[in-house]
Each structure stands twice: as structure tokens, then as C-alpha cells.
Fold each of these.
Amino acid sequence: MSYQNNIANTGRQEDVVDKYLLDKLQSILLQDERKQLQDLVSHLHNLRLDVEHLSRDVTEIKGGVFTAVDSINNPSQFESKVSPLINMRVQQLKKNFQQEFGYEVKETVKEELEASRDEFIEVLYPIIGKLVQRYVRYQFDIFLENVQKGIGNTFSWKWWKQALTTFITGESMAAKSVKAAMPTQIEEVFVIQTNSGLLLGYYSRSNTTDPDLIAAMLTAIQNFVSDAFKKDSGNLQTIDHENQRIFLHNFYKHYTATVVSGIADTAVNEKLYLALSDFSSKNVPTAITEIDDSLFNGVSRHLREIFEDFDLT
Amino acid sequence: MKSITKKVILTGSFSVGKTSLISRFVYQSFSAEYKTTLGVKIDRKTVELDNCIVNMMIWDIGGEQNQARVPETYFLGSGGVIYVFDISRPSGFSQITDDIAYLTAKLKDVPVVVVGNKIDLLDVVTLEEVKQIIPVSVDFYTSAKEGTNVENVFTHLAQKLVNESQ
């Protein structure tokens, strides 16, 4: 019995050992699979969490869409939400309009103006005409006022003085009044070689575009006139242009053309002639072989010195 | 650099291309449209040479049948003359000798440059044939239309003007 028990005990022990060894073997062999299984379980768990999140997001979006649809169906609600955005954009446009659309607007306006130039002129012409008319009337009023002042001095000391001058010089008081209203001024002086028409010297209050060409053209006009009327001895003496008069004075081998604005009468002409005659004898050489910079600059400098502040009254 | 101003006369019969030569020289342009010059037209052009700047006041005189009909006053004070004739119009050649004689008599010691214009209207062979029958010595053959030799005419005259003044 005890033998049989011993055998039975021994058999159980062996079974236990076998089982232990089998488990150990299994553990060793399935180690990698078990790890993969654990990873898979972990991954599955994460996926489940993601799906739950997505599900929540979809629910929220669905809610948002329902709200938007409700807002669109309800204009007042929609307007209250959209208006602030539009207002903000409008303000931005107002602020940056020049930068964003300035060029396009400028080009469009330019094209439109060019395309309808005639229409514009037609519309503006009467307006400009009125402006010019108003300006002329204003200037005329000033002129009348000045003449009036002159007449207003009648029998004053000034008047008696003018009357005395009139008696001596023979110049009328009316002419004196007009002269006082429109000051006489030298605008330009050209000193021109008679035969060639080349410029020997030049003075101008405001620079003319091409004094050389003007000198040549003035000479050509003189030539034309003397040729047309077949008179060698006669000379052109004045040329009138608007409120300017060109006085032409002839000297030995040159002549001068003086542009005078304002009242330019015989007395002015005489005064000019005396001054230019004196100037010519002192500053313009009679024997000129060549017109170069030094000659031109010298004559021009002297012209400026004498005629810049020359008093013609 | 020294700078001088001279009056230059551009003359010749009518329709020989005087104004076209000026347009080509001064404005680098040419127009086939013919407009007769009435009286005189004045232009200026500055030619810069090695030793001097020459400011040329060019008087383009309206064409006349012969030079004796040009108002004498236009010639006064000239520093130089450019006489132009039409190389494609042999009928006008007979006048050239008289015209040049008249100019040299009127403007003593003034350089005269003789120019045959419109060479673009002739082919090379015809041009050589025509050259043989021109009664005077020609300084330049030009084409205002194509710009051939135009610049040379004025530069040559500018140099002569400088030489005269020295």
C-alpha cells in the first residue's frame, strides 16, 4: 500500500514538474506574441478613444450646422451675426482704399476724361468764360479806381503839380492817369547784329525760350518789311503784341529790340532810345569779327546792370 | 571750349529738299509731304568739333528759280552758305553755275558748300552717269530721306567756319 502510495506520489510530482516545465516552455515560446497582443490591445484602446472624440466633434458640427441653417432661415438673426464682419471689412476698405484701388480709379477717371474730352470742354467752357469775364471786370474795376483816384485829386496840390507838368511837357493828364494805373516795365532787351541777326547780348526779366531764334526772326521780319516795301532807308520801329510793345532802335552795326509792358508811348520810346544809345556807344564794339561767349556775356552783363531797375516813368 | 555763333544760309531752287535737309539734321526726321517755304524759316543747331563749339543759326530760304531773285537782305552777315540742288532733276543743272557765281560774288570770302540732294531717287549706275554732267564741283551727295551724308555737310561747313575765323 505504502509502495503504491509512493508510486502515486511520485507520479503526481512528475506531473507537477511536467506542467511547470510545460508552462515555462510555453512562456518562453509565446513571449513575443504576448507582447504583440498587449500592443494591439493598447492600440485598440487608443482607437476607441479617438472614435469617441470624433463622434463628439461630429455632434458639435452637426449642432453648428443646424444653428447656421436656423440663422439663415431667420434673417434678423443672420444679419446681427454678419453685419459686424461686413462693417469691419468696409472700415478696412475705407482706410486702405487708396492703396488697394487708387491706381485703378485713377486710370478709369483718366480714360473717361480722355474719352469725353469734348463733352467736358462743352460743359466747362461757359464756366471758364465767366471766370475770365469776372477777372477782366475785376482788373478793369481796379484800373478805373486808379484813374478815379487821379481825377479825385483835382485841384489838390498834386493836381496843380500835374497840371504844371502837363503845361510844360504837353502830355495830357488823362494819359498820365492811365500811365499811373498801368506801370511801364522793361521785360526784355535784345542787342542784335544788324546784318546777320545774331544776338550780341540779352537781358530778360523772365527767361525766354530761345533768344537766338527770336533775334534771327526779328531780323528776318525787318528784312522782309524793307524788301516788301522796297525801301532801304525805312526801318520797322515798333511791333505791338497784346499789352506789350517791342521798340526797335537802330545803331551803327547793330539794333536793339526792347520789349516793354504797360503804357509804352513816345516819351518811353525817347527815354529808351537815349539810354540804349548811351549803352551802345559804351558797351557794344563796332568792329565785331566774331561773336563768342566772352562778347555775348560781356554785353549781357552790362545790359542787366543798366536795365534791371531802369525807371521808364 | 571756345564757342562761336554763325549765320548759315541754306539756299537753292524750289523743291530741292532744303527744308528736308534741315529737318534731318536738326530734328532727325523726314516727311515726304512737300510744303513750300514762304520767305525764310530759321533753325539753330550746335555742332561740337574737337577744338570749338559752333552755334549755327540756319536760315532756310524759300526756293526761287534763281539766286538773283532771293531778297539780298537775307544774305547779309552770312558766315557760310549751303547751296542745294536736286540730283534727280538734270533740267535744273544749267542754273547751278550761274547761281554759285552769283553767291560767291555777293558773299566774298564766305565758304559755299555745294550739295546734290535726293540720291535715294537714283540707282548707283544712273548716279555715276549724272555726276558726269553736273557743271560744278559738288562737295556732298546727300539723301535727306535716308540721312546719307547730311551730318557731314554741316560738320564740314562748321569746320570751314572755324578755319575762317582763325
Note: The radius of gyration of chain B is 15 Å.
Amino acid sequence: MELIDNLALGFGVAISPNNLLFCLIGALVGTLIGVLPGIGPLATIAMLLPLTYHLEPVTALIMLAGIYYGAQYGSSTTAILVNLPGETSSVVTTLDGYQMARNGRAGAALAIAALGSFFAGSVSTLVIAVASPPLARLGLQFQAPEYFSLMMVGLIGAIVLAHGSVVKAIAVTLLGLFLGLVGTDLNSGNERFTLGFPELADGVGFVIIAMGLFGVADILVNLERRHAPALTAVIGRLWPTRQEFRQASPAVLRGTVLGSLVGVLPGGSAALAAFASYALEKKIARDPSRFGKGAVEGVAGPESANNAASQASFIPTLTLGIPANALMALMMGAMQIFGVTPSPRIITEQPAFFWGIVCSMWIGNLMLLIINLPMIGLWVQLLRLPYRLLHPIILLMCCIGVYSLNSSSFDVLLMLVFGVLGYLLLKFGCEPAPLLLGFVLGPLMEENLRRALLVSRGDPWVFVNRPISAVLLAVSAVLLLAVLFPALRRKREEALRE
Amino acid sequence: MPLFLKRKDFAAGLLLVAFGAAGLVLGAELPIGVARRMGPGFVPFGLSLLLILFGIAIAAGALFHAGETVERIRIRPLAGVLAGGIAFALLIGTGGILLATAGAIAGAAAADSNTRWGQAAILTVVAAAFSAILFVELLQLPIPLWFR
């Protein structure tokens, strides 16, 4: 069995003492960050990149992935206990999770969230293992036109699923593509938009943009609005009752399937999967009025879905080199820093790297279960940390992180510039996440557009005459029309409302 | 000031137009080329135009539809955080990580009206020691500890 061999190879890599250690560190740090309000996973991963520079690429990625799904676990804790989601993916959990806590079932809600997440994480690890090789084989047949069209689907997907105005999301994505142009044009050697700064000749470092937009800008916004979390009193018994188990189990299953599907979609994200799962549970429930008052399914479904999706979204990144959302764009940028370019060839050329990461995800999920349930009291204490002690540390970590890339003070100043840009975007009601995706995909799209048009002698029909490319473009068109068409737009607003 | 000037969409549109216009001006020298041989200016030109178009569309929307207005921009967080970052950038190469850390934390602390200065002082010392040990000693990043 090829699958077994692959998994054996992967576990061999993942359980080396070093990799286990960094998987644990990643999961711990991720949980810590997830619990603390005001720092998102994007900023965390960007901030902690310098901690991984001296590691092997596979170890570094294992740790970063651990931070990513650890943050998901941690954020459900705050969602349930203090009605404050640590990340957007847990926004839905506040609806019923916090109500369960107020009904004295906080312990059960936490346990269901953790167990559901673990189950979903295990299944989606298998999904990655099964789905990646065929997808990579398909990807190997892709040429410039297909890649261009695929990235188009990715961008449109992210736009369609962004919060708020579609037009603004498109504009912010364009801005990201535009910023991706800065630097020396590889084909002609012309410098573009470098404003005469030699530091910009290689383009704007992607960690700099990520930390500016998500680290510094978040501090600026958070300092303007104050919130003091109010802790619910008792956690209560951790183990759910038999009836709660009966209600949760099918919801976990449905959430896992839904999350795995949504995660693979271009533009799909953990937050979207959670929303979709909540909507589904409410729709099929015999008594929908229980939702919002502490329904067990309202915690079990979304918490499983967001974890399944956050892992499944590694599939397009690792096999095709197309990140599905801003977080995956960050992961892809991190891989490039370590000299690994995600592409369909990665599975065959670097099997130990690929399978090592996949298997470490399962191990990481197991660790998280252990980290979260018995140690829950410790994490709750962290909630008492006031923001006035946190944001100076966040700023410091951003500065050190960016400086350590090239030992360049210019980079730190540039990060501040992007911090102000991100702050303005947020102030003006624009979500900055699509910018990062556009920024990462921009240079790739330009290169593939150039190649496609070169081969076709300038004939733009090349994108429509090739079947795979045509299908991908049709998907983008349908997605775009769907959001611009008013009836469907209302549906989308309903689904994304919160 | 007319109301539409304060709307979020109007400001967002202006910001986008500014980027697009800058793109057109700064990219004016880049050869655009033709589709079969795209020049370095091909994509910049197209994107700049699109940015301006979308910017105008978004800003124009604010003229006709009521929308949220931009909340007041507070100077203190902005000034403090930027000062902290700039202090870090200026100090790290010459003054070393201890001073740079102190600069960043002091700026960030000044940005927050809730800061208690006693706590901030302790935080500075702890953070400076922590970053010196973690980044300079353990991770061996090429950052000096103190003045060279």
C-alpha cells in the first residue's frame, strides 16, 4: 500500500525527538496566542518566523503548522469562557459555547470542542494524505494558462468569501497585486516602483507586509477600542453527559466532512467552514430555537469544521503551490524563505518533507488535546493579562522578527509604513487579508500571464481554448456573478453575518 | 465639511486612486510592450488603471449612498507605536538589542493611555533580558548586545 508506506515515512520524520519537540512548542505557543485576545494567527506566525530560521525546513514548518492549528484550539477556549473569539474561526462558537458556559456547562463545551477538533483533525490529516498525490499529478499537467486561471479562481474565491463589500475586496486584492510588482522585473531588469531605494530592488519582503498589516495595524486598532474580558465563573465538570455526547457526535461528523470540503476550496477558510457548519446544524435541527441558547451541536459542528478546514487548506498550498487564503499565503512565504517552493513536484521530490509535515499534524492534534483539556485552568489564567502588557511585546517581536530577516533597519521602517496602511484600510472599512494573497500571487500571475501569451503569440483566447483553464475561468466568472447578483448577495450576507 | 467626505468609502476610494495615480506616474517610463511580448510596464499600467477605476467607483458610491463615517483617528496610539518602531530601527544597528528593546517598549507604552509606568519599566527590563538571551545568545542572530 502506497498510502501506508507514505504515512510510515512521514511518521518516521515526525517522531524524531527534535521534530516532536518543535511540534510541541508550536502547539503550546499557538494555544497561548489563541487564548490571548488581540493577536491573530497571521501576526503570530509572522512574528515567530525568526525563531525558526536556524531549524531544518521540515522542523520549521512543523512548528509553524503547530502554531496555526494550536491557535484554533486556543481561540475556542476564549470564545466559550469569555464570549471573545481569539480568532475569526471561533466567532460562531461564542453563540452557543458561551451560553453553555452560562448554563454551567463550560467544561462540557470545552471538552466537546477539543474532542471534536481532534476527531476532525485526524480525519483531515487522512484526507490530505489521500487527496494530495492525485491532485499533485493533475497539477503536473498544468502549464502557464492553467496556472494563471487557477490563481484567478483563488483570488476570486478569497474576494467572494471576504467580509463586507465585494467591490472593496476586489480593490484591496488589486492593491496587493500592485504591491507585488515592486522590485526588479525579472525579464527586463527594469526596476519598478522602487522609489530609488536599493533595499526595494528585490521587492518588498513578504514578512514585512504581513507583520505591518497584521501585527502593527492590529495594535493600532486595538489601542483605540478597549475591552476588558469578563470571565465566567466555573468551568465545571469536563466530561460531557451521555446525552451531550449523543447530540454532539453526528454534528462532529457533519462538521468534519463540511470543513474538509470547504478547506480545499480556493478562498475557503476555517472561519467560513465554521459559519457553514453552524448554518447546517441549525437548518437540520428538529428544534432550531435551541440554537443561541447553548445547543451542543452549535459548538460541536463549527469547532470540528474549523479544524478540518484549517488543515485541509494545506492541500492546495502543498500540492499546487496556490495558497487558499492569507494564512496559507503566509505559510507558502515561510516555505520559500527556507528554499522550498511548493509545487506539484514537492511530493515526489521531497517526500520526507511533505509526509513529515502531514503526519506531524496528527501528532500535533493529539498533543493539543492533552495540552488543552487537563491544562485548561492555566490557559484561563492568561486571560487576566491586560492588553497594556501585551502590545509592547507584540511590537517588539514584530520589530525583531523583521530586522532579523536581513539585519536591515530599513525593513523595520517599511513594516511601520505597512502598519499605517493596514490601519487606514481597517479605518476605511477594508479587510486587509486579501491584500496578502494578491501580493503573494501577483508576481506568479504576471509570470504565467507573460508565458501563456508568449506561447500563444499574444492570443488571449489561449485561456479559453484549453479545457482545464476554461473550466477554472468559468468557475471564477460564476463566483463573481454570484456575489454581484443581488438575490444571491443577500444569501451571502446572511451566511457571513456576524 | 460635507458629510460624504467623512464616509469610509470615500476615504478608501481616495486611497486607492492615490496608489493608482502613483503607479501611472512612477511607471510612466516602463515600456508596456505588446501582448505577445509583455514589457515590464504591461501589468503595472493595467493594475494602476484598475486601481483608479475601482477607487473612483468606491468613492462615488459614498456620494450617493449613506454609509458609515470614519471614526476619529487618535494620534496617541499612532504616534507612540511609530515612535517605538522608529526608535528600534535607529538603535538596533548601533546601540544593540538592549537599547532597541527599551525604545520599542517605551514607545508602545506611551501609545496606550492605560499604561502604568511602573509596570512598563519592569516590562522593559524583562523584555530586554529576554530578547538578549533568546535572540542573541540562544538563536545567535547577528545583533549586537550593546554599543560595539
Note: The first helix of chain A runs from residue 2 to 14.
